[in-house]
Amino acid sequence: MTCVAWDGKTLAADKYAWVNGSVGLVTKIRKTKAGLVGVSGNVIYLPQIFNWAEHEFDPAKMPKLQEDPKEHASIMLITPDRKIWMYENDSVPWLNERPYWAIGIGREVAIGAMAARIKALGAACAAEAVEIAADISGMCGYGCDTLTFETE
To answer: Whole-model pTM above 0.85?
Structure first.
């Protein structure tokens, strides 16, 4: 129940978490040694994923959940050179060569919102894309966190 979006400058994520039948609020993005990290997946795994990111995604430190094709988290790593690296159910990422991207249940709406904004205004806006995804999806929302490499 997530939408994490990158627009080339800003990483944004909603705060919605479905926890045992209730709505919780969590932070799904973090600045780490590896870069900016956004996570989509079961909220109980966030600490394990962020810990792995702090170890710069060392394959030996990969959480066991990442090996499970049904339980793994989708992880977006934005490196300081602004490349988008995606981790799925493996310790080896794939490089997404698009200038913007999104993960989570709201991803298609967010990607479409960023593409439309580029056509209309010349620049994407990740936070706006997350908000639009929340308006349409109903499975994400409850606020939006943002990070940039300049953010402390």
So the answer is: yes
